[in-house]
Amino acid sequence: ADWSLVFWTLCSVILPVLITLWCSFQRSRRQVLIRDIFRKSKHDWHYTDLFGQPSYCCVCAQHILQGAFCNCCGLRVSEGCLKKADQLFLCKEIMMRSNGGAHSSMPHHWIRGNVPLCSCCMICKQQCGTQPKLCDYRCVWCQYTVHDECMMDRLKTEECTFGEFRDLIIPPYYLSTINQMRKDKRTNYEKVVPYCRKHWMPVIVLANTRSGNNMGETLLGEFKILLVFDLSKIAPAKALQLCTLLPCNAVRVLVCGGDGTVGWVLDAIDEMKIKGQERYIPQVAILPLGTGNDLSNTLGWGAGYAGEVPVEQILGNVMEADGIKLDRWKVQVTNKGYYNLRKPKVFTMNNYFSIGPDALMALNFHAHREKTPSLFSSRIINKAVYFFYGTKDCLVQECKDLNKKVELELDGERIELPSLEGIIVLNIGYWGGGCRLWEGMGDEPYPLARHDDGLLEVVGVHGSFHCAQIQVKLANPVRLGQAHTVRLILKSSKMPMQVDGEPWAQGPCTVTITHKTHALMLYHSGEQTDDDASS
Q1: pLDDT class for 377, splitting at 50, 70, 90?
Q2: Which band of pLDDT confidence, cut at 50, 70 and 90, is reported for residue 533?
Q3: How confident is the model at residue 104 (pLDDT cuts 50, 70, 90)?
Q4: Percent of the chain beyond pLDDT 70?
Q5: In which band, very low, low, confident or very high, does the pLDDT at 529 lie, cut at 50, 70 and 90?
Q6: Which end of the chain is less packed: N or C, by CB atoms within 10 Å?
Q7: Closest Cα partner for 144 from 114, 123, 130?
């Protein structure tokens, strides 16, 4: 009886352990196989534990809750059918060879099932995808949908017109033709406009999947009708080389990310200028996914995107946007000291430079985010942390008596500073996540501020509480003046500084801000949402 008790006790302990180990082994083996398929496939497969809408496997036609989907063509498949789907179905081709060159026609690329909600059949004009099964077809290029019973042989070979946004799409035959022309050392690309389009403005989407609430990952699939680059996998400088294959002064780039991502792309465009590719420089639109999004707000693209606006409306806004110029500034920080042999730090500024409480808040925020990055995946949480550090600075006042520690010169003229805790140098209208700092309450006369006039606006603040009052329009900033060149001398102690949200602690130094270049941006002049207006 004792041995029997020992045996069954061991079984009750060892058996669950063995089952757990076996399940872990099978799971890891399955994940290795899936990663191997993803790596070798021409599809842009992504695995998900839960689809956002009712989905059916394109191979076995069974209802699935989890599985893989292709961000490029929209295929959805169960885990068990993944390898078979990869062999059966072709993905959307970015480059296709054709005897007719860039003016060739191409048939529809139909994908069966999982059509968008509320889509209508191009033949009978009735709603598609209403049956709870794998049904109906969708073209991955023009996005037209058609019922199973309406699908005819002629539709399978019919020419695809690329749909409503044909003027934004780069046809695969065009890129193939241009690539061949480059090999033949022919450069008259302007003559190869696809389908004789008069108003062709190809759009390239650059998405930062790490920005904001991970919306960038979702947008990769939403913009699948266009050419999309994931900036976590490819640098913007490399992606923008595609502009040299497209007509001069026609390309538009939609940057999905925060102000930091936009600055990254604009730096890559400056590199194109250095290479002598100035005539291929694109105009830049913004889909704001970051926390502050002040540059996006200034250019009319809103304070933040959370999926509330349909992709079709965003593309329409990009088509209708007006081209403008944005001043870009060189910020040079030269350390003081007799034995200082280090080169000056050089930054490029699009939004603003500051020294004082707002730079201290940004510095504390970045230090906290580097320690626990998983906590900072929400725009609301980010702003709450900023609020916490701002409240803390109201009590501690680490930046008090700044006017005794710095000297300020505007266009070579020294400015007598009142009692201040912070100085902010503005290039754009918005600051601090939606505050029009230079205007303040709007009850005092002040010179007009623009982002393309070669002038900087310089203001002072009395502390974090004063910044909060300005943001809710209960106070005005201390307007110190406008200038083409700003020089700031930090005489003693270490102070927090920031350029476009990138903070650091700086010892005694001289900061010189001069005009660098212009960036070609797109301004959305349409009516903004109530949320943007209230910001």
Answers
A1: low
A2: very low
A3: low
A4: 88
A5: very low
A6: N
A7: 123
Q: What is the pLDDT of residues 417-428, one digit of tens each?
A: 999 999 999 999
- Cα torsion 133, 135, 139, 142: sign: negative
> 371: burial class by Cβ within 10 Å (0-12, 13-18, 19+)?
exposed
Tokens describing residue 393: 């600075």
- pTM value is 0.82
Higher pLDDT, 499 or 215: 499
User: In the prediction, which pLDDT does 201 show?
Assistant: 87
| Domains defined along the chain, listed by start | 36-95 (3.30.60.20), 105-163 (3.30.60.20), 166-320 (3.40.50), 329-516 (2.60.200.40)
Spell out the residues 6+ positions from residue 250 whose beta carbon is closer than 8 angstroms to its own: 200, 201, 202
393/389 Cα distance (integer angstroms): 6
Q: How far apart are CA 55 and CA 134, in angstroms?
A: 8
- Cα–Cα distance between 229 and 98 in angstroms, integer? 25
User: What is the Cα–Cα distance from 295 to 279, expressed in whole angstroms?
Assistant: 25
- Give me the DSSP letters along 464-501: HHHHHHHHTTSS--EEEEEES-EEEEE-SS-EEEEETT
Yes or no: say if 119 and 101 are a contact pair by the CB < 8 Å rule: no
User: What ranges make up the beta strands (E) of 107-235?
Assistant: 110-112, 137-139, 145-146, 203-207, 227-230
Which element (helix H / strand E) includes 354? strand 352-355
Dihedral pair phi/psi, residue 329, rounded to 5°: -120, 150
pLDDT at 531 over 80: no
Written in H, E and C, the secondary structure of 212-229 is CCCHHHHHHHHCCCCEEE
